[in-house]
Every structure is written in C-alpha cells, then in structure tokens.
Design a protein that fits this description.
The chain contains 23 helices and 17 strands. The protein has helices at 9-17, 24-27, 119-128, 142-152, 163-166, 172-179, 184-187, 196-199, 203-207, 233-239, 247-257, 271-277, 299-313, 319-322, 329-334, 346-355, 397-410, 417-424, 443-448, 471-484, 500-503, 506-517, 525-551; strands at 46-49, 102-108, 132-138, 158-162, 210-211, 214-215, 217-221, 228-232, 265-267, 284-286, 292-294, 338-343, 364-367, 385-391, 431-433, 439-441, 494-497. The strands form 6 sheets. The chain has a 5-stranded mixed beta sheet with strand order 3-2-4-14-7. A 4-stranded mixed beta sheet has the order 9-12-8-13. β10 and β11 (292-294) form a beta hairpin. The chain is globular and about 60 Å long.
C-alpha cells in the first residue's frame, strides 16, 4: 500500500497544510458531499453527514480469512506477524467473462516494471480472465497529468485518482458527472453481495466514494495517518545518533548528521511533520470565541515554518530537495544521502522490498510522534478513504459488471490466494517461501512484480509484510502509539467539498511557503501570504465551513 499516503513531497506540502489528501476529513478539501439543492458543478462547496448517504452504500459483508495477532488500537490497522499456512480462494470465478482487454491508468511511486512479456501480469490477468492494459504514471507527477486527461475526456475504463489530487481539481464534481459511471445501481445495499470482496470494504470508506448523490468510485481504505517521520536506524547506529524527541533534538541531529564533504545531509522533506510537532492543527480549529481558524493562521504554524526555514538555512537539507520539485527522495533516502524524511506509511515496506536484496543492513524506522517542546504531541487525522477508482461512463451494464469484477479481485484481503498473487506473483517463480512462511521475491520477482494491481481498488487495512523481520511489530507499535494522540476532528463524520474559489488558493500559498523555507522570501512574508489567502477566498471558505458545523449542531 503506497500512494495514498506518499504523494510527491513538495506538492503535497500545501495540500496537507490545508488538510486535504489524507487529512481531508478535517479540512474537507478533497471530496464532494451531497446537499439539498446542490448542482454537480462542485464550485460552491457542499457537505453531508455520512449517515445520510446510507442508502447509496454497499451493505457490509464481513470476510476474514485469517485473524490478526496484533489487533489495532483506537482505529490503527491490525497486524499479522506471520503468513497463514493455507491461503483461501476468495474469488472462485474469472471476473471478465468476455475476455476483453481492460484499460486502466494508475500511479506508481517506484520504478515502472516491464509492461510487455511480464509473467507477473500474465498470472494475474489469467485469474482475472482478461489482460489489464496499464498506463502507469509517476505518482509525483500524477496530479499534473490528470487535469488535461479529464478535460479531454480521454479516460480508460478504470481510472485511479488519489484524493489529494482530486483536491486540486476545482470542478471535479462536474467531471465526475460527465465521465464516470454511477455505481449505485450495481453496489447499493444488498446488490454488493455480487462482489463480496467489495462488500467487505468498510462502510465509512464507501461514503467517501460519493459525488453528486451517486456512488462514483471504489474507495481505497486509509489508515488516516497522512505522514510518518522516518530515519535510517542502520546509519544512526553507526554515527551514535538517536531519533529526535523534540525540535531541539532535530536541530542537533541536523548538525551531527550533515557532512557535505561525504555527500550526506540530515534531512529530506520534513515540513509537514515539523509543523505538526509545533501543535498546528491538521486543518481547522476553533479559537476561544468559537471562531474557526485555519491552520495557516495559527501561531503554531508560523513557528513551525520558521523552524523549517532554519533547517534549510543551516544547510541541513539535501541540495536536491532545496532545489525543489523533482528530487527522487526515495533514492536519496535509500542511498543514505539524507537520513531523516517524512513519508506516507506505505513507503516503508516498499523501500524494504527495493533495498534489502542489495543492502541487507538497510533499516529505516519510524520516529514516534513528538511535540516540539517534548510535551504531548498531536497527530493529524485523515479520511477513512484516500484513493478512488472510477469506472468510465457509458461502457454498458455488462461491461460495468466485468470492471467491478476486476476491482472485486483486487479487493481480496490478506490471507487469500488473490492477495498473494497480486502482491507477490507465483510461488516458485516470482517468490519463494521463507522458513517463517513469508514470501521472498526471486530475481524475476524483483524485476516484474510491482504495486500495480493494488491501485485498481482498495482492500481492508492490514499490516502484513512479515517477510521483513520486525516490520509488522514496529509498524503496529507506531500506529497504536500515534492513534492514541490523534487530533480531534471537528468535521468527523461530515463529508465536505470546499468551494472552488478556495481550492484555487493552494498553489499560490504553497509557492510562497516554499520560497520562505528556502530563504527566497523573508519569514515576514508568511503574514502577507496568509492575508492574500484570506482576501482571495479563505475568509469565504471559513464562513462556508462554519455553516457546515452550525448546520450539524457543532
């Protein structure tokens, strides 16, 4: 599971600053709701409580082929510290009876595998019943490519769109009406039983697949953690360094770890995690008078920005990150060029898959959430769903059913043959079983297997990758600790789409912020950027969000 939380570090900075993407529920800038009298334009903003969407959503049908031994606490994902000895076949039939090729577009945050003569694809397509022709795009550039593709209307049959990319599209509700199939007639209520793996997805995640009073997308359930801070424990141990517990530690690590002469710096992108550590809210909060205040208007945000700037100005941030957009932070972190970064949770096990075969000592670990002053931290809260897969409109009922069948296959959970096949390929060919029963990719698997089919729809949350020693236990411990200090979400249970005018404020503010971090503008210009945000639509947005709370008795 990668992209929902990964994204491109630079572009996601502002998005998560306003609470979009994985933090969207709090700031409500990603997804449309459905309110009386609203049109499909998505320009004025809307809101709806999740319980009012119940008639559109699939009836939940539990399917649990194996039970976790590390239960998730306070909403954290469950952990499975070993692979089951027997895998259940969850999808007995081929899903595409016609055998007709399926076209799909998905993001990927790792090297693109060979698309032709790929036996991993062949094995999955054989089980699906038809070849899936992928158009795979670099996840960091995905949002930039989506706008023109949607505007042209030249979309594939299955289109995966991360929520944080949707938040940057000012008229997405309009595009959803025009381009994507209404799945309500196929999945609402008991109808979902025809697709039992889809019916096994959480109801709250499905609520975020609704646009314009129609179920428009299959959701990718999210753990709700926008970021985690990671560090290279293997190199820390060599240097006698310890993970940070406050901002003072972070600054000291900048000095201790940075050695430009040997090509090593302390930091990649860390802005969101630093700003969070200063106590800035994930999106909105109420002040003592009850007025809604956006995160960028808070003193904690300003303090966090000033601290991030200090890291840049001290020379502790890798030069390619300083240069802005386009830095391959995965390669830099995995190559030891910098040692601390923020990343989506899925990026951790992906890096292990890439690096352990060539560097067995590679050991990235998460930093436990900390407050800048060493006090009690907060962790920003995200939506129950973070990525969505849409079906092209107008392909006909029979074809919609086949396409939903493909998504039913990719929704099969841990403990099933299907999960094993779309994650690891064929036993004995793409992977072998280790003594603990966990799969280990062969050289062919390293070449051909990639996180492609997982972006054709989500599956229930689980921490499963026990092939990497200690990973499941460490991730489970981090999630359980982080879940205890999640920030209270003012908009919990309310799906909100921000007004289009407010959505357009994202890039100008982010550009100003990046300039301030890098010393191209003085810190004092943060106030100017915030004022421009307020005057150009932020204050109107505040009124809109305040009304949403008022309408819901909050």
């Amino acid at each position: 599971m990668t992209g929902p939380e990964i994204g491109g570090p630079r572009r996601r900075t502002f998005i998560s600053l306003l609470g979009a993407g994985a933090a969207a529920a709090a700031g409500g800038v990603t997804l449309t709701g459905c309110s009386k009298g609203s049109t499909g334009s998505g320009t004025a903003g809307r809101a709806e409580t999740e319980d009012k969407l119940a008639g559109l959503l699939p009836k939940y049908l539990r399917y649990e082929p194996v039970r976790p031994d590390l239960p998730g606490e306070n909403g954290a994902a469950p952990g499975f510290s070993h692979y089951p000895g027997e895998l259940k076949r969850a999808v007995p039939d081929k899903m595409v009876a016609s055998g007709r090729e399926v076209t799909a577009m998905t993001p990927l945050w790792s090297p693109i595998p060979p698309l032709a003569n790929n036996s991993y694809f062949d094995a999955n397509n054989e089980r699906i019943g038809a070849p899936v022709k992928f158009n795979i795009l670099n996840g960091n550039d995905y949002g930039d490519k989506l706008g023109p593709i949607l505007a042209a209307g030249n979309i594939p049959e299955l289109l995966c769109i991360p929520g944080w990319n949707i938040s940057g599209l000012t008229r997405f509700g309009q595009a959803a009406d025009k381009l994507f199939e209404d799945l309500t007639p196929y999945l609402a209520g008991d109808k979902a039983a025809a697709y039992p793996m889809l019916a096994n997805l959480p109801t709250r995640a499905w609520a975020y697949g609704v646009w314009n009073s129609q179920l428009k997308a299959v959701p990718f359930p999210s753990d709700g953690f926008p970021w985690m801070m990671m560090y290279r424990k293997d190199i820390f141990d060599q240097l006698g360094a310890e993970p940070p517990k406050n901002s003072g530690d972070l600054l000291a690590l900048g000095k201790q770890l940075t050695d430009a002469k040997t090509g090593r710096w302390a930091f990649g992108s860390v802005a969101d995690e630093v700003i969070r550590s200063f106590g800035a809210p994930g999106s909105w909060r109420k002040d003592s008078s009850g007025k809604l205040v956006n995160k960028i208007e808070t003193p904690e945000f300003a303090e966090g920005v000033a601290f991030v700037r200090q890291l840049f100005q001290s020379g502790y941030v890798h030069p390619e990150v300083v240069a802005g957009g386009g830095a391959d932070e995965n390669a830099l972190f995995e190559g030891g060029k910098f040692l601390i970064r923020q990343n989506g949770l899925g990026g951790w096990h992906e890096s292990l898959q890439r690096q352990l075969p060539i560097n067995p000592k590679f050991d990235p670990q998460p930093v436990l959430p900390f407050a800048h002053d060493g006090g009690t931290p907060i962790v920003w809260t995200g939506d129950p769903a973070g990525i969505f897969t849409f079906v092209k409109k107008g392909v006909g009922q029979d074809r919609v059913k086949e396409l939903l069948g493909v998504l039913n296959y990719t929704a099969a959970p841990f403990g099933t043959q299907e999960y094993q096949l779309y994650n690891y390929g064929v036993e004995g060919k793409h992977y072998t079983l280790q003594s603990n029963g966990a799969p280990k990719l062969t050289p062919l698997g390293q070449k051909e297997v990639s996180q492609t089919y997982i972006f054709l729809g989500g599956r229930p949350l689980a921490i499963t990758e026990s092939e990497y020693p200690g990973y499941v236990q460490s991730m489970s411990a981090w999630q359980n600790a982080a879940a205890k200090v999640r920030e209270k979400n003012l908009f919990d249970g309310i799906r909100v789409e921000q007004p289009a005018k407010m959505a357009a404020l994202g890039k100008p503010f982010d550009d100003a912020l990046q300039d301030i971090f890098r010393g191209r503008r003085p810190v004092s210009e943060l106030k100017t950027a915030v004022k421009q945000w307020q005057d150009n639509g932020g204050n109107e947005g505040r009124d809109f969000y305040a009304k949403v709370l008022s309408d819901n008795g909050r």
